[in-house]
Request: fold
Amino acid sequence: MHVAPVGGTAVQDHVALAEIELCSDLIIAASAAHEDRLSLESIDEVLKVAEERDASRR
Reply:
């Protein structure tokens, strides 16, 4: 049996953490939505797609 050593050897995968945060944001938005499904516009708003496009154009 392999046990992780004590002493803070945790590794963080920043890409995975960002993806988990985005998924969490979508889940929260979907649970708060009044319609059956989120529209594409709502998904873009939750994921801040327009803000990313604007920032990349600068």
User: Anything to note?
Assistant: The mean pLDDT is 85.
